[in-house]
Design brief:
about 375 residues, alpha/beta, Rossmann fold, six-stranded parallel sheet, about 40% helix
């Protein structure tokens, strides 16, 4: 009995084991499998150099805006060789540009040598050079008017310096402005110096000689009038001798003229004239004739005359002058305002009044540094 029981129990145990082995394992929750590299979300890749926004590159020299080209200004000057006073006008033009670089002017200077045809040729040459404006110190009172009218119509403005023009009609006034000194004031100032000296003589009827330059027209007459009117206002009985140098207008031509005058005029107290060349010529004639009683007053500005005064030469009692540097400076200022700024300027540019340098005040002037003398 027990043997059969054992056999039975063995059979049941084996059947149970066989049955358990045939059943599928219970489904376990799967562990989350790691995603592959292909399934990972890609990290945001940095943009390549090609994809980066380009930094703004500096412009090359060729791409930079070009500086404005210099503006050509022609300057025709009446006389720079025989009459160096006008070198001061040239200096004034150059000084203006140095003080005002915004003007951006470049100059070409021409010397008319006191000749009308040379002046007209100079104007044509300056236009051919490319001048956008012309500063003209004329050789006479009207010869340049036709050519000015021609070029003003082409858009080239003119500024007149020193020598006022005498138009036949309003239609002739084509220049933008006149920059010049008061010529009559020169004569007035010389007359004032003469009056101060004549008062010391105790005469009611002094004699004065004025050596004029008839070829200078109104400019010369204005100086004569200023001198004569001033002397006669103080000495109504004075005698004013006016003699014109129609020669070269040099010291030599004036000397020849005055040598003849001295032969016929036994009394002359004081001499002045259109400019220093005329008065120096008169002085040389007086020295040659041993007329030591005559006193002299220069006009315009001469190193020779100022040296005489500085060294105490008793014959020289004054030198009346106007600053040519101021003349050139203001003429250039007028051109800048007209051509560049488009301003309407007065028909006459006012300049400072003349000054008289005398033995009493010459030490107050730094005249030895004036390069135009």
């Amino acid at each position: 009995m027990s043997k059969k029981f054992l056999i039975l129990m063995t059979i049941l145990l084996l059947a149970s084991m066989l049955l358990t082995a045939c059943q599928p394992a219970a489904e376990q929750p799967k562990a989350e499998e790691p995603t592959t590299a292909a399934e990972q979300p890609k990290a945001e890749e940095p943009t390549t150099a090609a994809e980066q926004p380009k930094a703004e590159e500096p412009t090359t020299a060729a791409e930079q805006p070009k500086a404005k080209e210099p503006i050509k200004i022609g300057v025709s000057i009446m006389e720079m060789t025989a009459y160096t006073w006008f070198l001061g006008a040239k200096e004034g033009c150059e000084k203006y540009v140095k003080d005002h670089p915004e003007a951006n002017f470049v100059f070409q200077f021409e010397d008319s040598r006191s000749d009308v045809q040379t002046m007209l040729n100079n104007i044509d040459n300056l236009v051919t050079w490319g001048a956008k404006g012309i500063i003209l110190f004329p050789a006479d009172p009207n010869s340049a008017i036709p050519v000015m009218k021609q070029y003003v119509k082409q858009g080239i403005p003119f500024v007149i310096g020193d020598y006022a023009q005498q138009p036949a009609s309003d239609e002739d006034i084509v220049w933008s402005t006149f920059v010049g000194h008061d010529m009559k004031a020169l004569g007035v100032k010389a007359g004032e110096v003469a009056v101060e000296y004549l008062k010391t003589l105790g005469k009611e009827d002094p004699v004065a000689l004025f050596v004029s330059r008839p070829t200078s027209g109104k400019v010369s007459q204005d100086r004569i009038d200023g001198f004569s009117e001033t002397v006669l206002a103080a000495f109504p009985k004075a005698r004013i001798i006016v003699e014109g140098d129609i020669g070269a207008g040099s010291a030599d031509s004036a000397q020849s003229l005055v040598e003849n005058i001295l032969q016929r005029e036994p009394v002359i107290d004081v001499v002045s004239g259109h400019n220093d060349a005329e008065v120096i010529g008169a002085y040389n004639a007086a020295v040659a004739a041993n007329r030591t009683e005559i006193k002299f007053i220069g006009i315009a500005g001469s190193k020779e005359v100022l040296t005489y005064i500085d060294k105490g030469n008793p014959a020289w009692i004054g030198e009346v002058l106007q600053d040519p540097v101021v003349l050139g400076y203001q003429a250039t200022d007028a051109m800048y305002k007209v051509l560049i700024l488009g301003q309407k300027v007065p028909l006459i540019y006012e300049l400072p009044q003349p000054v008289a340098i005398t033995p009493a005040n010459i030490a107050e002037f730094d005249w030895k540094s004036w390069t135009w003398l």
